């Protein structure tokens, strides 16, 4: 009975996804989902999914590790500012990303005063 409740809760929360973006990065996939809370406030659910293969031979066991964080509107500016700082630090110490040789290494921060949800994250 409890498994049924958990399954229904998961199914209902999947229906609440208003917008989703999948970012494939090697063995990982990052899912950026916009959802709505019970109070009709939008938030971002960020899920990292990593493929894990255990065992070798004909019958390897494949599973996925998932880690999730929730980012609420009141924290967007602080989160984006902090994320931009750590990205800039890494780029300053290790140089530009090999994926984009035209990148100047310092993306412009985006203003979030319009009420729109904008997240520009490069991995």
Automatic annotation (TrEMBL):
Tree of life domain: Bacteria
Family: Belongs to the PUR DNA-binding protein family.
InterPro entries referenced in this protein's UniProt entry, alphabetically: PUR-bd_fam
Pfam families: DUF3276
Keywords: DNA-binding
Secreted recorded as keyword: no
Positions of the UniProt region annotated as Disordered: 94-123
Protein name: PUR family DNA/RNA-binding protein
Molecular function GO labels: purine-rich negative regulatory element binding; RNA polymerase II transcription regulatory region sequence-specific DNA binding
């Amino acid at each position: 009975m409890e498994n049924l409740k958990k399954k229904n809760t998961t199914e209902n929360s999947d229906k609440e996804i208003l917008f989703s973006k999948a970012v494939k990065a090697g063995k990982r996939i990052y899912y950026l989902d916009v959802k709505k809370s019970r109070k009709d406030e939008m938030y971002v659910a960020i899920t990292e999914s990593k493929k894990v293969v255990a065992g070798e031979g004909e019958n390897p066991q494949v599973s996925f590790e998932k880690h999730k964080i929730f980012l609420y509107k009141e924290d967007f500016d602080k989160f984006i500012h902090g994320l931009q700082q750590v990205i800039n630090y890494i780029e300053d110490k290790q140089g530009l990303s090999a994926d984009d040789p035209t990148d100047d290494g310092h993306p412009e921060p985006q203003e979030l005063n319009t009420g729109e949800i904008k997240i520009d994250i490069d991995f």
